[in-house]
Design brief:
CATH architecture: 2-Layer Sandwich
CATH topology: Double Stranded RNA Binding Domain
Largest sheet: 3 strands, antiparallel
Order of helices and strands: EEEHEHEHH
Distance between the termini: 85 Å
Number of domains: 1
Strand content: 15-25%
Number of strands: 5
CATH class: Alpha Beta
Strand order of the largest sheet: 3-4-5
Number of helices: 4
Radius of gyration: 26 Å
Shape: elongated
Length: 140
């Protein structure tokens, strides 16, 4: 099965390893018998669909969820069924990959205008006057 992330990016089922583990939280007696939580592993270094730029952004976005070897590990235990937790983990991975594919626009540094600088200094002086007026009154 293939999971479409973007129109030009599709992740195959071979790139994803899903294991089921015991979940904490609600579930009654069922929680002790059935492994409903999902641990999803995605090897970003071996995935041919990702570019090197996407891998670098994915490393930044994933943070501690990515191992040194370049494997993204996501755990999903929000729901009480395996299938819904699996769908949730895959959707979270797809969203992470969408964010990694998006290239942020670079900010162009601009300088404040003369009017803005003057207004800032006037406001600063006014705030200083207000704070000075809060002090203990003098006997003059």
């Amino acid at each position: 099965m293939a999971y479409p992330v973007l129109p030009d990016l599709v992740i195959s089922d071979d790139d994803i390893v899903v294991t089921y583990i015991h979940a904490s939280g609600p579930g009654g007696q069922n929680v002790n018998k059935v492994a409903t939580a999902v641990q999803l592993r995605f090897d970003a270094t071996r995935c041919a669909a990702l570019t090197s730029r996407m891998r670098a952004r994915l490393r930044l976005l994933a943070g501690s969820r990515m191992t040194r070897e370049g494997e993204v590990i996501l755990t999903a235990q929000k729901f009480r069924s395996q299938t819904r937790n699996r769908e949730d983990a895959i959707e979270r991975l797809c969203e992470l990959l969408r964010q990694a594919a998006h290239v942020p626009t670079r900010r162009i540094a601009t300088r404040p205008s003369r009017t803005q600088r003057r207004r800032r200094m006037d406001d600063k002086a006014r705030r200083g006057q207000v704070k000075q007026g809060r002090g203990r009154p003098t006997l003059d």
